[in-house]
Every structure is written in C-alpha cells, then in structure tokens.
Amino acid sequence: MIQQIIAITGSICSGKDSLKDYLIKKHKYKAVKLGNILRGEAKERGIKVNRDNLYELSKKLNKYDPCFLVKKAVAEAEKREWEKILIVDIRKEAEIKCLRRRFKRQLKFIQIDASQQVRFKRIKARRRRGDPKTLADFKKLDAKEFKRFGLKKLFQYADFVIINNDGYESLYTETDLIMKRINK
C-alpha cells in the first residue's frame, strides 16, 4: 500500500534523474518515470520516439484522460506493493492535481531547476541524439517546453524547490533537508 509519494518536476537537464537516484539510494524509494511510460505507449502504437511525437501522443492521451500517465504510474506501484514511490517527469498541471486529489497529505511535490547555462552544459555532456548543440537552440527548446507544458504554472504547485546549480553534494544536502521536513 502506498504510504508516501514524491512527485518530481523540472526543466530540461535540471537534475530530475540525479534527484531520483539519490532518493532511491539514500531514502529507499522506488521510482516510476512518466517519460518511460509515455515512450512505452508510443512503441505500442508504432510511433517513432522523439520529443515532438511524444508531445503529440501526450496531448492525445491527455484528451482521453488527463490523469492517464499518473494512473499508470500509480497502478504499477500498487501492483508491485511499493510503499514509498517517486513519480518523475510530472509535466502537466492536471497530473499533479490528479495525484493531489487521490493522495492528499501522502504527496509531496518537488521542483528541481538550474540556470540555463548549467542545464546547457549538462545537455551537451549527455550527448543524446536530437539534443540542441548551441546555447541559442537550447534556449529555443527550453522556451518551447515551458510553453508546451505550462511549466511556469505547474511549478507554482511545488511544495519544495531545489536550485541545482552547484553539483551533487549541494543537491544531496538540500534533498536531505527537504526529507527531514517531509518526514517530521
């Protein structure tokens, strides 16, 4: 039975996966990534996996049920009988609202972010196909994502915000402080 959920959102290359990995290792959470669920849905439908196609699929699923991805994530966690779960890649206001309606006090929502310059360095370092190569292209992609997903509005729902400009030790320290507040 799910006892605690931490939902994670953030802009591109803000450190969502680093936060997830640390919460798994240090705080014994299990994780479900909405992006992985969405990619799985795309593959089942024979849709080529890229940012634009995933966005279009996400829009279609959202019209069908705004809670589609988070319902699948919760169902997976319940099937596996996880007690403490992370839902990573919250991208829409409707997703966090769905989780809040169902889990109320069990849910905490963390936004992680970093400056554009730091995030651009990270995106260059990860060398993923299709990632922007110039800062100007990264800024365009960032603006597009903010608009597409309504991230500015979504971020207002965050219970906690981590600014992740200074590396792992700073991220871990800030995360531990948040976890103390969550678990008191």
SSE blueprint:
Elements: E1 4-10, H1 16-27, E2 30-33, H2 34-44, H3 51-64, H4 68-79, E3 84-88, H5 93-103, E4 107-113, H6 116-126, H7 135-149, H8 151-155, E5 160-163, H9 168-183
Parallel strand pairs: 1-3, 1-4, 2-3, 4-5
What average pLDDT do the residues reach? 95
Order of helices and strands: EHEHHHEHEHHHEH
Strand content: 5-15%
Strand count, sense and closure of the main sheet?
A: 5 strands, parallel
Please bin the fraction of helical residues. 55-70%
Q: What's the architecture in CATH terms?
A: 3-Layer(aba) Sandwich
Kindly, what is the distance between the CA atoms of the first and last residues, rounded to a whole number of angstroms?
20 Å
Please provide a written account of the structure.
The chain is an alpha/beta fold and 184 residues long. Strands 2-3-1-4-5 form a 5-stranded parallel β-sheet, sandwiched between helices. It contains 9 helices and 5 strands; from the N terminus they run βαβαααβαβαααβα. Helix 1 crosses helix 9 (168-183) and helix 2 (34-44) crosses helix 3 (51-64). It has one domain (4-33, 82-183): P-loop containing nucleotide triphosphate hydrolases (Rossmann fold), CATH 3.40.50. The two termini are 20 Å apart. The chain is globular.
Summarize the structure.
This protein is an alpha/beta fold.
Keywords:
184 residues, Rossmann fold, 9 helices, five-stranded parallel beta sheet, alpha/beta
